[in-house]
Amino acid sequence: MTTKTRNLDDPQAAIGAFIFCIRCVLLIVLFMPLIVSTSTFFPFVVGKAIFYRIFIEIAFLMWIPLIILSPKLRNFKSPIVIVVSMYMLIAAVASFTGVSSNISIWSTYERMQGLFDLLHWFAYFIMVGSIFTNSSQWKIFLSVNLLVSALVCFIGLSQYLGFHGLISNFAENNPSERIQSSLGNAAYVGAYCVANIFIAAALISKSVSTFFSNTSINSKEQISKRNKSKSGTTFKFKNTKLEFIFVSFWTVCLTANTITLLLSGTRGAWLGFGVAFLFTTVLYAVVGKVKYLKRICIAFTIFFILFLAIFISFRDTDFGRDIGDTNVIAGRLIEFNFNDSSVMSRWHTWRAGIKASIDKPILGWGTDNFVIAWGRHFDASDTVKEKFDQAHNKLIEELTTKGLIGLIAYSSIWVVLAYSIVKNYKNSKSAGTQSYLLLISAALVGYFTQNLFLFDTSVTYSQFIVLIALISSVNQSFWSNSKENYTEYIGSPNIKLNFKTTSLHLSRKLVVYAASIILIPIIIYSIYSFSIKTYTASQHIVYLTADNYPSWEEKVSVYNSAINDAPSLANYPRILMIEGIAEDWYEFTPEIKIDAYNIVEKAAIDGLDQEPESWRLTYILARFYQIASTDNPSLMDKADYYVDRIEELAPGTVEAKVARDINNRAHEFHQSQTIE
Fold first, then answer.
1. Which residues contact 349 (CB under 8 A, 6 or more apart)?
2. Do 468 and 610 fall within a single domain?
3. How much is the pLDDT for 429?
4. Is the Cβ–Cβ distance between 178 and 186 less than 8 Å?
5. How far apart, in Å, are the Cα atoms of 204 and each of 243, 250, 432, 517, 576?
6. Is residue 93 part of a domain?
7. Is the residue at 51 inside a domain?
8. Containing domain of residue 623, as a range?
9. Looking at residues 562-589, what average pLDDT do you find?
10. Spatial distance between the Cα atoms of 304 and 288, rounded to a whole number of angstroms
11. Does the residue 34 lie in any domain?
12. Where does residue 264 rank: exposed (0-12), middle (13-18), buried (19+ CB within 10 A)?
């Protein structure tokens, strides 16, 4: 007996190896929600961003040679890919035409959501859609996604039950009684769970339907066979044991996500789930083909409406109010009203965003620049003390930061998604595939609804990318599940480039080698410069926020390292350094004061050159010069300048009012000193 061996000179083997490796790396990205970088600034944000950046770039490095070898894997003509590409182009243009291209491209340590990260998620969307092409492959992909969600839920439930020793590396102690898990915020947990509840339900419905032949529709032969069956139901078991394991696993994930959603206490996510649930039951009751499922959906819809009616009447009773007073989770629903502080703060934030969009209606203020627009038009500091760097409404966020063109492009994604789902729903020939599509669309509805009150994070945005990549992959061959044949992926030996007067033939292998030679150093540079160094810079910032540090010289050294390692994100350490200097000014020696003053002067020049309209940096500069003026009254001229500037940039904020009030008192103090 002879054994057939292959090497990478064999195109079929090379393509198979590339596909396997890329799929593994793309699946690793799904584990991002579990990452908590306890040694960095914003531990629930920075580590996650660095993690997915690195693995997406590694996958991209392998994917480019693959699509050169196999043109069939280029899924660029999908309508969803086209509209998402248009949206990305508009986001890029808005980033370079906005008020701060630096923030638009690189964002901040607190968010890590700028154009740079959008491009990573765009690449992930393209790669996933081209590499995972049928329902069997997507079953594995979505199952891994659910596994991660189950782990997030386990961490959150352990946190809720007080088993902090089990999760010390993943989450912090949670005094709010709301599950935060490894995401660091209960709102993110709720939004993440909503998507995974419906993903699990979609997989369960598709799998269970294969057990019953009477779920097949539009098949006269099936109906005839069923009528002849004595029991009225024909069972069709294929790989029953394995499928049972999958269904059991998905059921556990669905249950865990539902419980965690409830205990997250996130009202926006609850609303998203409720709207998505009603969307599913009402729509299937109207367009569904299986009568008993339609009856179940009608029953669920009636039950859900009755439950809401009973709850609304119950919440106004003394008993309901007592429950709200004793339980934080229940209280968030029972005590909700439109005068709630979170509702009022969102209302004023939305109003500020809409006003700001009138100033820059075409391309907006620039990607991730909402805080600058908000500062310019916010006028409710008497009632709202929070600072909003996100609109807490995706549509207003897009309108404000990317203008009408950006909002239209974003809306177009949803229109094309709806069209693709309806088209595939009509073309599907079984109740299982129809329920699958309906529940996946419900996950998108839940995401869209909760994003009218919350905002995207890397974790929640990853679920959106997964869902739209899935929809872009669905076509007539999606359900075939035929064994993958790498031979059909092999392209011709040469690439033909046509010009007006001639054509050029290039060796496909030669192009792969050339692309690899170009890409490898670029990816290595990107990983080192924009991921590893950003991570180390974020670690340095932690020391700047420490109450005690060994010496002034060491603090300056750490500050300079934070600036030099990630210059594009340097304004956060600049603000923290100036703030620390202002707080410790009276304890400094004269020599340290001179050094500190020079640091502030340089930070002001570099920081405002990088972000000219940063009202947060402007405010902290005003505070520093007000404090430093106690040693040198002439510095009040600079304090006056920055106070005037913050009143121009953010006139209605608490910071502007505090800066003006302190400035007036500082002038009174200096005048009294002059008289004496």
1. 374, 378, 384, 388, 391, 392, 393
2. no
3. 77
4. yes
5. 10, 7, 9, 45, 50
6. yes
7. no
8. 570-675
9. 94
10. 19
11. no
12. buried
Q: What percent of the chain has pLDDT over 90?
A: 59
Where are the strands (E) in 293-409, listed by range? none
- How does DSSP assign 251-282, residue by residue? HHHHHHHHHHHHHHT-HHHHHHHHHHHHHHHH
Residue in the structure block whose two tokens are 């974790």: 459
Report residue 317 as tokens: 């009773």
- 132 in the same domain as 238: yes
Identity of the highest mean pLDDT range in 75-79, 249-253, 490-494: 249-253
pLDDT digits (tens, 9 = 90+) for 270-319: 999 999 999 999 988 888 877 878 888 899 889 888 888 877 777 677 66
Any idea which residue has 């965003």 for tokens? 353
Query: Could you give the CA distance from residue 304 to residue 585 in angstroms, rounded to a whole number?
Result: 61
pLDDT band, residue 147 (cuts 50/70/90): very high
Q: What pTM, to 2 d.p., does this model score?
A: 0.90
Domain-located, residue 550: no
Residue pointed to by tokens 């340097």: 570
User: 254 with 245: CB under 8 angstroms?
Assistant: no
Q: Are residues 454 and 577 in the same domain?
A: no
Tokens of 224: 């005839």
Q: Residue with structure tokens 């600058």? A: 372
Separation between Cα atoms, residue 518 and residue 44, nearest integer Å: 34
Whether residue 252 is found in the same domain as residue 385:
yes
Residue 69: pLDDT band with limits 50, 70, 90: confident
